[in-house]
Amino acid sequence: MIGLGTYAYFWQHSDRVPQPLSLIGAFEDTRAQGVDLFQICDYAPLEQMTDTELRDAAEAAGDLGLTIELGTKGIVPEHLSRFLAIAEVFDARLVRSMLYGPDSRPSLAEAETSLRRTMREYETAGVTLALETYEQLATADLVGLVEVVGSDHLGICLDPANVVARLENPRTCVEQTAALTKNVHVKDFAFARQPGWVGFTYSGASMGSGLHDYAHLLGAVRPRERGINEIVEHWLPWQDDAETTIRTEREWTRATLEHLRSTL
Questions:
Q1: Closest to 144 in 3D by CA, of 108, 94, 101, 190
Q2: N or C: which end of the chain has fewer CB within 10 A?
Q3: Tens digits of residue pLDDT in 218-239
Q4: 74-87 burial by CB neighbour count: b if 16+ within 10 A, else e?
Q5: Could you tell me if 212 and 187 are in contact, meaning their C-beta atoms sit under 8 angstroms apart?
Q6: What is the pLDDT of residue 195?
Q7: What pLDDT is attached to residue 87?
Q8: How far apart are CA 25 and CA 93, in angstroms?
């Protein structure tokens, strides 16, 4: 299933724009674009919501016919237990996280211990935990960790754009993680020369205009055949003013949805 996530609304949620979009506003916009899935990922207000606010947001998503996934950072068992409780409110079947959180950088051995403890809860609840590929951890180490824990409810959130920062090849990352992938983050990316030809900027690009070989990912991972959701997000730099930035963000979302739908 193709979905949108909070990173597709990064600037629209931001306090840099005159009227930031609420979470429910993002739900409504997602539904208006004919999308049935939304991933609330790294959305800071979520953890500050009261139980009533969480239930109201979940009810709004349900009324719109949206399936919800969640996303956070870190694998501290107590933190992941809290997100499992939030997942229950939203009837979310997947939580995306990262090995390192704001206040924790576990070794691989410590991570294994934490995940073994956590996965019992997730398995009982029928919720999948997907750990994202990113530059702070070698993809091979992430794959090894998931394999050694050995839970059917533990896998990888594949984002090959992230690993370029540690000089890994995105195609290699896709091939390493394909069998363990449970979730895909969809965005294009490219290098651009800095002014004066001194160095490069690595940033987002409108889908289909950058370096991401998405056809290769589709062939290697086979997300549609395996029921793996594809979540649209962006790395869009600020475009000098709020109006231009929001317009560009929305244009990138439309372009990405069109690109993905053309491959169905």
A1: 108
A2: C
A3: 999 999 999 999 999 999 999 9
A4: bbbeebbeebbebb
A5: yes
A6: 87
A7: 98
A8: 22
Q: How far apart are CA 51 and CA 120, in angstroms?
A: 24
Distance in Å from the first CA to the final CA of the chain: 10
Name residue 53's amino acid. Answer: E
Q: How far is 183 from 198, CA to CA, in rounded Å?
A: 37
According to CATH, the topology of domain 2-262 is: TIM Barrel (3.20.20)
Where are the domains positioned within the chain? 2-262
Residues 128 and 83: beta-carbon distance below 8 Å: no
Position 169, amino acid = N
Rounded Cα distance, 157 and 188, in Å: 16
pTM of the entire structure? 0.97
| Distance (Å, whole) CA 172 – CA 101 | 25
Burial class (CB in 10 A: 0-12, 13-18, 19+), 193: exposed
In this prediction, residues 188-192 reach a mean pLDDT of 96
Distance CA 178, CA 225 (A): 13
Using only the alpha carbons of the chain, give its radius of gyration: 18
Q: What is the DSSP letter of 197?
A: G
Residue in this structure with the two tokens 């091979």, named with its chain if needed: 140
The secondary structure of 223-248 as a DSSP string is HHHHT-EEEE---PPP-SSHHHHHHH
